[in-house]
Sequence to fold (167 residues):
Amino acid sequence: MTDNKIRVIITNNQKAVKIPTGLRMLIRRCCHAVLQLEEFTEPAEISVTFTDNENIRKLNAQYRGIDSETDVLSFPMGENGQYDTNLETGAKILGDVVISMEKAVEQAEAFGHSLQREVGYLTAHSVLHLLGYDHMEALEKVRMREKEELVMERLGLPASSSYIVSE
Fold:
């Protein structure tokens, strides 16, 4: 798959956390790695937005009915492998990823790994959601975690041993 087929639109809508140099490139690499892993060969478009805890809490309440902050939200634009197409570019519009940079910093510190690793992981997790993956059942959770860790390995962002799944 050629890289020019995947467009990742990144927007920073927060001032709480300074975006480190190279983080946008990491997010693009992460999106590419997930799509390669999933053998998604069509042109694709993904939107990634950085926000803060207050705004992600509002989105979580509005769209999921959960009035608390979270680390990442996924807004898939497709269903059962069917996606809207950007008429100008022909790209499949996979959807939107919203990352709380404040939460990412908190979690990176809690898990003892870098902010890059945390944002990469959240991106991989969210892009898998855009492709239709879920983690409501134990087996789905295991399958999704395996894919996330495979992407992290491919990007050279190894897991920290203290990573714990909590729901």
Q: What stands out?
A: DSSP finds five helices and five strands in the chain. Helices lie at 23-37, 53-64, 101-111, 115-130, 138-154. The chain has one domain: 3-154. Residues 71 and 166 are 12 Å apart (CA to CA).
